[in-house]
Amino acid sequence: MKSEQIIASLKELVATGEAPGKVLTDPADLESYGKDWTRIYAPNPLAIVLPKTTEQVQALVKFANENRVALVPSGGRTGLSAGAVAANGEVVVAFDNMNQILDFSASDRLVRCQAGVVTEQLQNFAEENHLYYPVDFASAGSSQLGGNLSTNAGGIKVIRYGMSRDWVAGLKVVTGKGDILDLNKDLAKNNTGYDLRHLFIGAEGTLGFITEATMKLSRQPNNLTVLVLGLNDLGNTMDVLKTFQSGLDLTAYEFFSHQAMGHVLAHGQVQAPFETEAPYYALLEFEATSDQVMDDAMSLFEQCMENGWVLDGVISQSETQAQNLWQLRERISESIAPRTPYKNDISVVVSKVPGFLQEIDEVVTNHYPDFEIIWFGHIGDGNLHLNILKPENMAKEDFFEKCQQVNKWVFEIVEKYQGSVSAEHGVGMTKKPYLQYTRSEAEIAYLRGIKQVFDPKGIINPGKIFD
Description:
The chain has helices at residues 3-13, 27-33, 54-67, 119-128, 145-150, 158-161, 197-200, 236-245, 258-266, 291-306, 319-330, 332-336, 353-367, 396-416, 441-454; strands at residues 22-24, 47-50, 71-74, 91-94, 101-105, 110-114, 131-132, 168-175, 180-183, 208-216, 218-219, 224-231, 250-257, 280-287, 310-315, 342-347, 372-378, 383-389. The chain is of the alpha+beta class. The protein has 4 domains: 3-97, 2-Layer Sandwich (Uridine Diphospho-n-acetylenolpyruvylglucosamine Reductase, domain 2), CATH 3.30.43; 101-219, Uridine Diphospho-n-acetylenolpyruvylglucosamine Reductase, domain 3; 224-333, 2-Layer Sandwich (Alpha-Beta Plaits), CATH 3.30.70.2190; 340-447, Alpha-Beta Plaits (2-Layer Sandwich). Helix 8 (236-245) runs antiparallel to helix 10. The radius of gyration is 23 Å and the shape is globular.
């Protein structure tokens, strides 16, 4: 079919029902919806479809199968691995208009949402009902639930609450063949064979489209308190973690370098936590449910100071101060964005973090001494974000080429430590050449086999994870 015929057919398909969808073809819309937060691939979609119902999505998939039209799912477009980029004339299926909370059960603590519900929208809904949705990250104000689940997003609370996967009671999906499946039916216990919902979680939209998700909620945390510590040495991150976990149940344990904090402070919206400068910082969060808990926290802090692991520290005395201290960590990505960072999202077992990070830092620094390296991440669950900043006088294309040379060395270290080349951002296109550093040939063959079952014609998000 010609492009004009495809677009006309798409308009007919989503014009049905009480809630018609939209098809966009303006150049500005193609540019906006065809990309995510990566800047490596130029967007080039044929059209943007915004369906309103699962049935419209099903009709789109069946049409795409019949006419060999490639479809790319699009959520909040906050991805960092080009998993939602449409660079080859695909049709983007965006879920911005499927953004309703459909049902809620207070007794079950379950909420059923459409895929386009924004993370913060779900968090606010939970709070209004005196409950808590704990999956949280810097892009919560724009990331969408379908995208979060498709990448099994983690964020800043994983040490206590786990990944997105851990909060999914059920899914409604449209497979690459055009079948609508209700997966798990929101049951707490359902031991009837393969749990297919977990294939779609983390699949980056390559098996089909998540259109609805039933999410679990939890009780609200009580008096969240933040402690920021200046660390004497990188290895002290694990000493401090072990010490505090011996006496407290942490809800977060984050890490950032002095260079990372410097970029945040340069923006002028956040102040340094204390006068003492340290090479690395840790941010701890816990529930201060009683005076005894606060006394325990201060005792653990003093123990870390006595051991020489911590140079200085500050503890929040109010909710406002806790939020301000969190800004030191959460504003890092925003503050370095103008420098066109090349991002790697890697992970190892927590105990291996110091040696792992040290080896990678030495390799990158030795090969590219003129590149500024920014480290931060969810160190409490072994997830580190390596950001290499583009020198101002270097062309973007040359910079990305040099960073891709660095990748080989970095991922060889990841393989040595039996880690992951993508902890929470997915594979997409940017990590696709490096999948073998984390997955064996046999595993990749099974992944391809699963893809073939759900999407035999290869029309759903082609070219992502593997070719």
